[in-house]
Design goal:
It is a single chain. By secondary structure, the protein is mostly helical. It has helices at residues 4-21, 25-28, 36-47, 51-64, 69-81, 85-97, 103-115, 119-128, 135-148, 152-164, 169-183, 186-193, 205-217, 221-231, 238-248, 261-276, 282-295, 301-313, 317-325, 334-347, 351-364, 369-381, 385-397, 407-419, 423-436, 441-454, 458-471, 476-488, 492-505, 510-522, 526-538, 543-555, 557-564, 569-575. The longest helix has 18 residues, at 4-21. The protein is globular, with a radius of gyration of 30 Å. 44% of the residues are buried.
């Protein structure tokens, strides 16, 4: 992925999508004034990734100006975002007919022809330069199309040609290994996967599964198990756990990652989408994952999950949930789709619906660790502490042994228990989290700050929070904790700098500003203290906190502490 060639491909993709999404004013001048309303509305919709509205507005505009390339390309993007290749294809054909060189239009036409199994026509177009999506896609499509026509020799030649480009080598070899698997030549497939042909491949999860299936076909289940043990943690999801169990039982796994040349063609677009993810805009990556869906519509779960994830990131929550819904209930990844759907619902503000999805999933898939963790997290976000604790209890009960990654579950349950005021149980969880990951800053800060608030173990609390600050020096909340523990220890002058730094990092946080006011008061800077308390009030603190701040503004901190029965600041200073 770091080669010059792939970087060039990614830069080109980014430039293309920026050009489409943010058309230059000169391009806009091509639009007839009568189209201004639809065009501008379409641009706004495109900017917001609202594919449904964009498709509608661009279609209206095209009725008035059927040959405008800017309108056509944006309309194609919108329809592909909706996974509507039937609507996108005629627009792409029209765009090519007017001799517009559009990579997006060519992608749609190649996908449409491959869906109709027009392999020879696609090969002819590629040879003539009439249909080109880019060197990587062209090369791999050429290889798989030859395999679809039964010409394995030409397919291997095309895979080798793709792999000859240093930047694209891994793609060419990976797809060649898959093609050998489809052809039943598992020895040749394993030679590539194992790195004996041209060096080791860095495999994705999907590639590891494919290699495990190849090894099993060769009667090497032990090697397949060793491969999986190296690649994955011991907390396996249902799909991986099922593969492991079958291998341990001595079963021969079928080669199903790619079952045919058509699946291989879909895999081309999925591979490119995976490479583009995070390197270019989500909307451009979505073109490739949608194309993969289009070419393998029946059981292309990985493409569906990627498309849904991209839509979620683009805040197209309805489309994301509809895409997650397409994963079948008997699919091993169904739980992942449901968890993704719940997250999309939560992010769209439908928290109750999201919670219900996870509740039902926890009932139907009680053996899946991540489901209970996700349910605990969403319930904790709603401050449903008891229900959240129960969900985390079920998750922890599924731990076969303690792993470092489990710290976060103990930490989360510790928070719920602290809020439930079962401190001993909460402290035990925090200690367990630190046992698994000793310098985890969030846990150090939470436990240390809790000790400070209770007035217990202050020296240990200071040590914990100092360690947390060393790990996260730019965290305002952790820096606030350090200033606050120094204040509670009576080391007021030392606290000032840390509290001022905390307010720089979190300038509109009411608690941090309130704390700085207390520290200023403690060192005799009463005017500045009152200023900070007033700032804290302006940032909407909780009513209980706001009432205490108003009392401090009225009487001063010393009087409020006296009312509360706390030790006077002057005494603490004298002792310091």
């Amino acid at each position: 992925m770091s080669s010059l060639r792939l970087k060039t491909v990614l830069r080109t993709a980014t430039a293309l999508t920026l050009a489409v999404s943010f058309a230059l004013p000169a391009s806009a001048q091509q639009i007839d004034r009568g189209l201004a309303g639809s065009y501008l509305a379409a641009r706004v919709a495109s900017f917001n990734n609202d594919f449904r509205a964009a498709a509608d507005y661009y279609t209206r505009a095209l009725v008035r100006d059927r040959s405008n390339p800017l309108l056509m390309e944006n309309a194609i993007l919108a329809f592909i975002g909706l996974s509507d290749f039937q609507a996108a294809t005629p627009i792409a054909r029209q765009m090519v007919e007017i001799s517009e060189n559009s990579q997006i239009a060519q992608l749609v036409l190649v996908a449409a022809d491959l869906r109709e199994k027009k392999y020879a026509e696609v090969l002819d177009s590629l040879e003539g330069g009439e249909e080109s999506v880019g060197p990587l896609v062209d090369g791999l499509v050429r290889a798989w199309a030859n395999l679809a026509l039964g010409d394995m020799d030409s397919a291997v030649e095309a895979f080798d040609a793709a792999a000859a480009d240093t930047g694209l080598k891994a793609f060419g070899l990976y797809h060649k290994a898959l093609a050998y698997g489809v052809a039943g030549n598992f020895e040749a497939s394993d030679e590539i996967f194992s790195g004996r042909e041209a060096g080791p491949l860095r495999l994705t999860r999907r590639g590891v599964i494919a290699h495990a299936q190849v090894l099993s076909q060769l009667g090497r289940n032990e090697a397949a198990l060793e491969l999986m043990e190296k690649a994955f943690t011991r907390d396996l999801d249902p799909e991986l756990a099922a593969i492991r169990d079958r291998l341990e039982a001595g079963e021969t796994l079928p080669f199903t990652v790619i079952r045919s040349a058509d699946d291989g063609l879909a895999e081309v677009f999925l591979s490119v989408a995976g490479a583009l993810k995070g390197e270019t805009t989500d909307s451009y990556t979505l073109l490739y994952s949608r194309a993969s869906e289009h070419l393998r519509p029946d059981d292309n779960t990985e493409a569906l999950l990627l498309s849904a994830e991209l839509l979620d990131q683009m805040e197209q929550y309805e489309l994301a949930t509809r895409t997650y819904d397409r994963v079948k209930q008997d699919d091993p990844a169904f739980h992942a789709a449901e968890m993704g759907r719940a997250e999309a619902l939560r992010r769209s503000g439908k928290v109750e619906a999201a919670t219900e999805v996870l509740r039902q999933l926890a009932k139907s898939r009680p053996e899946i660790l991540g489901v209970h963790i996700a349910l605990g997290d969403i319930l904790r976000g709603q401050e449903a502490w008891a229900a959240s604790e129960a969900a985390y209890d079920k998750a922890i009960a599924l731990f076969e042994s303690d792993l470092e990654t489990h710290w976060v579950v103990y930490y989360a349950r510790g928070i719920t228990r602290e809020r439930l005021k079962t401190w001993d149980a909460a402290e035990s969880d925090f200690r367990k989290a630190l046992e698994l990951r000793p310098n985890q800053p969030q846990v150090l800060n939470y436990l240390g700050y809790s000790y400070v608030e209770m007035g217990e173990n202050l020296d240990e609390a200071l040590d914990m929070i100092e360690r947390a600050v060393a790990e996260r020096p730019d965290s305002g909340h952790i820096t606030d904790s350090l200033g606050w523990v120094l204040y509670r220890l009576g080391r007021y002058e030392e606290a000032v700098g840390h509290m001022e730094r905390a307010t720089e990092l979190l300038p509109v946080d009411p608690i941090v500003n309130d704390h700085l006011g207390d520290v200023y008061w403690a060192v005799g800077r009463q005017l500045e203290a009152r200023f900070q308390w007033k700032r804290a009030l302006s940032f909407d603190p909780e009513e209980e906190d706001a009432a205490r701040i108003r009392r401090k503004l009225e009487l001063g901190l010393d009087a409020v502490l006296a009312e509360e029965g706390a030790e006077p600041l002057a005494v603490a200073n004298d002792e310091g």
